[in-house]
Amino acid sequence: MREIVKSVVILGWLALASSAAAADDFKLSNNQRISCGRGLSAGKLSTATCRSYAYLFNAKTSEYFRCSVSLSMTRDAKEIISTQSDGACVKKPRIFETDGNYTFDATETEPPNTNSFFGTGGYAIWASDTTAQKMRGCITIASGLGSDVSKCVEMKFE
Predict the structure, then answer these.
(1) Where does residue 65 rank: exposed (0-12), middle (13-18), buried (19+ CB within 10 A)?
(2) Mean pLDDT score of the chain, rounded to an integer?
């Protein structure tokens, strides 16, 4: 009986260790951006809104999440009248079709008042396999028509 209990404990420990080893590895992007803007409202109210983006990358599957956080503050000449904050992450598709050991980086365009007439601009994701000479660059642009345009390009090493 003692051997059976010992075997069950060892098997449970091995299962736990193998599931931990097979667990996905999430990495936070190193290149977060923040943009802020101001607006004037009727009655001498002013509103300041700041938004920041970051990316959470699954280093095993090459799926990623584009996350944003925003804070908006409305004030008059004497006091802060209201604040609002919001944040969420949106899951994006895989960059590579197969599981592996990937690394990545991401960057956002400048705020919409300085970069283009295409709405909020876009972002770029770079991902590479840490075990092979394999790399993709992906760019997503807001079309201004409801859906984004996104393309990934496999890098050629010459």
Answers:
(1) middle
(2) 76
